[in-house]
Amino acid sequence: MSTKALELVGVERWFGHGSDAVHALRSVDLEVPAGSVLGVLGPNGAGKTTTVKMASTLLEPSRGSVLVDGIDAVRHPRAARARLGLVLGGDRGFYLRASGLENLRFFATLAGLSHRHAESRIAELLDRVGLAGRERQRVETYSRGMRQRLHLARAVLAAPALLLLDEPSIGLDPEGTRDLRELVRELRASGCGILLTTHQLQEADELADALVVIDHGRVVSRGSASDIAAAGGVDTVVTFATRELLPATRARIEAHPHVVDLDVRPRGNGHEIDLVGCGLDTDLLRAFGSELRIDWVTRRPVTLEEAYLAFVARRGTP
């Protein structure tokens, strides 16, 4: 097993030719070390799913190299596929008139699992994804969340070196989302490398060891959550409650050089206010004196969601 579950070097993908070509990815470099989770963030249409499809051999890169567990996925796609699991979700990928159990047995055969190993592995995974007791029902009767759980079971049947998860929590209820996150942690601990694309930033914050942000087909930021926060010019949130926030006072707070964003929520007879910025301290509120009647005030680090939104807002500023 390679120390890198996935490596993309200079990967580009375009559709069409000449002046009509549409570039989906431009010079993307990324890697997923074995036993780690890489979170891929970005708006719709940024190129996240295209990245997953090329990593999974569903699409060939127009330029660049893709290595799956050390295997050249362009030259040897079949060997690469044997080393990875993929969750794209949706209704495709299963025989709908067959049961969940029959589907998993079929895919276990394709993966080369012996009958004995397949039966024990399937039973283990059905229990792990919460489908034990429902496995003999036809897939066409499954809810969207149940089908997503079946996708997860199918993806990890052969204990892949690389697991590709494209928006895996879509359609899952809170219990299913919790089970998914526990499964990801277990797989990471076993040495599996995982690439996770998600719009659920709390999910990325909880699971990812490193992050990349893709926009318009390019990697525009990479590193930890704190690196994304630094790129967005934020690191702290000061929250306070006040009974009244005059427009003039709000304008003065927003004009403070260290305040990047201000969010006001109703709270009882007054307001609860988040100040998002860099190097903020509760002492800054003293500058507004009698303009603010503060009931209480707290200070904390920014969340990944706040960091990401600040980063996106900064990139959108000319």
CATH topology of the largest domain: Rossmann fold
Q: Distance between termini? A: 46 Å
Named CATH architecture of the largest domain: 3-Layer(aba) Sandwich
Mean pLDDT: 91
Annotated CATH homologous superfamily of the largest domain: P-loop containing nucleotide triphosphate hydrolases
**Multimerization status:** single chain
Cα gyration radius (Å): 23 Å
Top CATH class of the largest domain: Alpha Beta
The number of distinct β-strands equals 14
Helix-strand makeup class = alpha/beta
Low-confidence runs (pLDDT<50, min 5 residues)? Answer: none
Largest sheet: 6 strands, mixed
Strand order of the largest sheet: 6-7-8-3-9-10
> What is the count of distinct domains?
2
Description:
With 318 residues, the protein is α/β, with parallel strands linked by helices. It has two domains: 4-228, 3-Layer(aba) Sandwich (Rossmann fold); 236-301, Alpha-Beta Plaits (2-Layer Sandwich), CATH 3.30.70.3100. Helices cover 31% and strands 30% of the residues. α8 runs parallel beside α10. The two termini are 46 Å apart. The mean pLDDT is 91. It is a peripheral membrane protein.
